[in-house]
Every structure is written in C-alpha cells, then in structure tokens.
Backbone:
C-alpha cells in the first residue's frame, strides 16, 4: 500500500493547510495507511504528525496482534473501559497542537468532545476528509495488483452464481452462494453485502436481497464484490430468468449501450460529470431518462465507494491510476431493472476494464 | 416492533428531558422505529416531535419503496445532490425548536453543522442515545418472536457448518458456508461478518477469519448470527479439529464452566457487573484470569451489540424481556482460544436460553 510514501504526501498537504496533527477515525482511511485488518466492532485511531510520522492507537484486545502484523512502529493500546480513549495521546502531543485535521463526515460529537477535552477548547478542527480522499483516488501499482485480484475473484464468482440462477431459487440464497464462493476463491470477504433484485419490484431499487424466488421471464440483477488484502471490487450483471420479452430485452440493451458509451468516454483529462452525461444522454435519447435515478459510477479502493464519483456536477478530472465503476441503470415500473457494471482503471490513453464476466443478457 | 407504542415512550422521555424534537441518524435506531430495511450505503433520518409523531426522511432512491413498505405516514424524500439534506425538514419544524435530541455517539460534525444551519446556532443538542438504548433494551413479545427465530436459524446453521470442519478447510471457507446457510434457512443476512479463529494465533483474538487452513489438534471457534426481520442473533461454539490434547480440553472446560455459572446467575434484579463477576471468578479460580480479556456479554436486538452490556462497572439491573449473550472466553498464548456463547432472555424467575446447538467440545 506504499504507506510511508502516502504518509509523506499527507504531511505535505498538512503543511499547505497549516495543520499540526491529523487524527483519522474513519476505518477505511485507517486501514489504507496501516494495512491492518480489524473486526468491524473494533475501533482504532491513526495519528499523523507534521513530519508524516504515524502513531497507531488500537484497542487493548487488538494490541498484541497489531504489534505483530502492522508496519507502524509506534502502536499504543487504549484500555477499553476508559471513557476518553484518546487520553493515551496526551503525553505525546499536548501543548504543541493548534489545528487538528479530522474527517468531519466521520468524527462524531462524542469523539470531537474527547479531542477538545484533550487539546483544549481553543483547538481548531479542520476537515482533511477531502485531502485524504484525493490521495486515495490515484492508485499505485501495488494497489492496482490487489484491485485486479479482487476484480478477478468477483468476475469468476459472478459466472458461477449465475449458473445456479433458475426459477424458484430465492434472491437471498444466491447472495449467500456469492458470499461462500467469494471466500472459496480467496477473498477475505465481501466488499459490501451482495444484493440480487428480481422482477418488477426491482424498478424501486431496494439494493437488498429478499426471500423472493426468481420467476420465469423476469429480469434479475446481481451486484457484488470481493475484498482482497484490503482492496475492493464491484461488479453487476443482469440476467433473464428463462426468456425475457421484447420490452425487457430493450431496457437491458439501453443500459448496456449507455455503459459502452461511458466506457468509451473515459480517458485522462475528462471531467467526471462528462462521463455521467455521456451515459445519461444515451438513456435519454431512448426516452428512458427519468428511469435512471442514480450516479453513473464511483471510485473503488479500500472503500467500496470513494472518490472520484461520476455524477452530475462533479468537476473532478480523471487521471491515470484512478479506478472507477461504470454502471448506468434503467428501472422501469411494471417491467424491471437492468444494469451492467464494470470496474476500470484510467490509463494514459483511455481505460482498461478490470472485471470480465460475460455482459450479454443470459 | 410495536413502533407507535415505543414512540409514545420516547415522547415521554423527551418531555422529561425538555426536548422539542428528536433526530435519529443511527441506522439501527431508525430501523427499530420504522421497521424499514435499507441498503448500508443508504442513509435516512427519523424525526420525532413532542407528541411522538414521526417524520421519516429517506433518499429519493428509496422513497417509492418506503411509501409502500413503511408504516409511517409522513415520509419525505431528500434529493441526493443537496448538500444539506436536512433542509427538507425546514417547512415542518423551524422556529419552534430549542432543544434537539440527537445520538452524540453517532452524529457527525457535518451532520451537526447541518442541524445548526437549519435550526440556528442557538439550538442545543442533547444526547438521547442512552434514552433510546434503554427503551430498546427490554423486548416486547413481537420482538422476542423475531429474535427466537433468528436464534433458531443460527443454531441450526452452527450445527451444519461444524459438520464440514476438518483439517485443510480454511477459516474463510467455513465463514462463507455460514453466510450461505444462514440465507438458505431464511435469514435476511448475517448479524455481523462471521468469524472463525483457529489454532494458537486465536489467543490474540483477531475476530476476523483468514485464509488459514484448520489443522489437526487445534481448537477453533466460530462466532456468527442471523438477522430475521431486522432482529439479530449471536452464537459461538468451540470445536476441536480432530482430537484436542489435555491442555486444550482444560481451557475449553474452564470457559464452559464460567458460562454455566453466569447463566445460572442471570435473573431479574441482578446487576450486569455481578453476572460478569461470576464468570470472571470461575476463570480466576483456575488461574486463567488474565486470559479473559473481554466482557462477559452484551444485549442483542436490532443491533448485534446493544444495552445492556455485562461487564465490570456496569450498574444496569437486569429485568424481564432483556436479551443478552453470555460468552466468557479463555485465550492462552501457545494453546489457543475457547469460548461458548449463548443468547438468553431474562424471564420472571431466571433466564431462558434461545440458542441451542450442542455445547460440548466436538
């Protein structure tokens, strides 16, 4: 994960913004820099000083393992029964800190109160969420290796799960099968709870699988991904249960065409909103514009949703090493939903598709 | 979920605390009152006024489905491209709100800024996290039905997964199998990412499954749970891969004995810390006290971890209808980990065990 290099970049950003200390609470940001995997019920904090030097604060229960598995030298345990678990930072940092960088979208009021208790009410909390997101958006070769691996696992599993899709099997069962196969193929887990949406109800995209069985003639859509060494993948395929009628084939074809157009548009220098516009125009030209209610894509890395977002109004300019999904969808009441989603990495001349299961309606 | 009744109780608590409006952001709190299931990437907010009247604010993408599936009458969509998505509350609530109840452990700085922007900087944010947690701790009959069902699913799946445990199969594969079987048995999903920890390394409880294969003679521990109609279950079993030696059998026996003692202690009127003490004393009497590094148990409901917590220093008095886990564990470096976890409901005279897979070392 090139952690020390990325921490140096963070320290540069801190200097530009006049920040004395960064405290990262967001679990994905922490994993990005530490490489250390935690149970979701565990919390930990990464402190980074002006020189990019990290101090990692973990729960007592994770301390021994962190010392063995994490590259960071300064690791401090916090006792889980202390109300202010930041107090372990005291000796290290008090007295020389005026502006603290935090993730304002993640830091809770209680955590903010702890920070103020420790550093004094005069301390200024500055948002570094955007700075870290920007750092994370461009992937290194090492990161790309892991993402490729995660994408490969998800692609293979997609093919295997779709072979088991037939009338009568429930949405939830196929999701469970995906969860099993992802791990059998070497994933550390799912990048999010997979979901399968089938039939007319999928037009109101609930993005959770239900106990509903698949029925002949329906469209169904499976969205899933793997985590491999901390990095996520994301893929969606739409399939017909038995034979789809003309209307269903048409909405699938429109979603697919919009995706093709967006994929063809991706290259360094293009604005994120422009990629979205390309996809949206295809769907609008078919008179289905109001049935495409979400974004065209999002970045993927340690988080399943990260920068850059491909959507209306997003000015981010794509550059080589960014990894994004492309997934325009069409959701028509009384008919169903269709979406094809792939992950790509932006290259010097265009993009390279990382996920590779067959895309045609099967 | 007896939602309107629970909202009336919340309104009573609000009156006592002089709170004009409650804004719930925590997804489990929101699901508790709304009964509405959302994808984890979706956010929604439940506003409750002085009379216990709810207004539910959901993303545009979830709006049609919420109108069809949620019991609440006032549902308002927020456009996902609005920076301050609370602005939809404006017409409804501005001008008569001085004290707003929020979950301080959950509300982020950005959300707090939105609230202040909307209601003015003079508005006082009061923590209602504890109030809601207290309401949720005692389960109704309807809630218990769902929890029983979730516990039944997890118990059956535990038995099935353990039958597949043999040398060579990886921790992650068995976790994947659990994910599959839970859904085949009717769960909407897992109550947390199941984990299996095997061998000597389990003495540093990492609480995530790895690609490590099981090996002859090791102890291994599987912790998992189902979600059924929004309610969680939680169960752990320890098993031996092949035949365990005397030392491993001993730490298992100590963990089991501590659990039995704690289970026997649970009854209305006992303090949470006292149940913990009973378990801890058994382990200490065997000279293994320092190898029990966590709490004895926790409440379970819509959240996998909720009130009451059974741990040192917790003064909560148990009462009928509370549902808790009992899971003292022993983690010995060079040997391995042993823990047996069951879920119980506190009854009028003691407790009733809800999970029922065989407990002996197999």
Residues:
């Amino acid at each position: 994960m090139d952690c020390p290099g990325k921490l140096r970049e963070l320290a540069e950003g801190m200097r530009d913004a006049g920040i004395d200390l960064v405290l990262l609470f967001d679990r994905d940001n922490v994993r990005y820099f530490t490489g250390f995997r935690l149970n979701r019920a565990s919390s930990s904090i990464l402190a980074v000083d002006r020189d990019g030097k990290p101090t990692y604060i973990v729960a007592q229960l994770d301390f021994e393992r962190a010392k063995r598995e994490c590259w960071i030298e300064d690791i401090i345990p916090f006792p889980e029964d202390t109300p202010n678990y930041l107090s372990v930072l005291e000796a290290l940092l008090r007295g020389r800190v005026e502006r603290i960088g935090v993730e304002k979208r993640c830091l809770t009021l209680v955590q903010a109160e702890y920070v103020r208790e420790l550093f004094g009410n005069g301390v200024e909390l500055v948002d570094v969420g955007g700075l870290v997101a920007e750092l994370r958006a461009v992937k290194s070769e090492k990161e790309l290796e892991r993402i490729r691996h995660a994408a490969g696992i998800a692609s293979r599993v997609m093919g295997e799960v779709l072979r088991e899709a037939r009338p009568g099997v429930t949405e939830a069962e196929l999701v469970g099968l995906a969860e099993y196969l992802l791990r059998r193929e070497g994933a550390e887990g799912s990048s999010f709870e997979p979901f399968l949406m089938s039939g007319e109800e999928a037009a109101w995209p609930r993005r959770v699988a239900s106990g509903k069985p698949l029925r002949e003639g329906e469209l169904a859509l499976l969205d899933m991904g793997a985590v491999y060494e901390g990095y996520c993948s994301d893929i969606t395929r739409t399939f017909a249960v038995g034979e789809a009628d003309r209307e269903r084939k048409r909405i699938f074809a429109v979603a697919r065409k919009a995706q093709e157009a967006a994929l063809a548009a991706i290259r360094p220098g293009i604005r994120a909103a422009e990629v979205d516009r390309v996809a949206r125009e295809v769907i609008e030209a078919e008179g289905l514009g109001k049935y495409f209610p979400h974004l065209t894509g999002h970045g993927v890395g340690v988080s399943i949703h990260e920068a850059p977002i491909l959507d209306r109004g997003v000015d981010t300019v794509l550059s080589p090493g960014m990894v994004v999904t492309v997934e325009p969808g069409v959701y028509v009441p009384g008919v169903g939903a269709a979406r094809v989603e792939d992950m790509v990495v932006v290259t010097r001349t265009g993009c390279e598709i990382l996920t590779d299961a067959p895309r045609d309606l099967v």
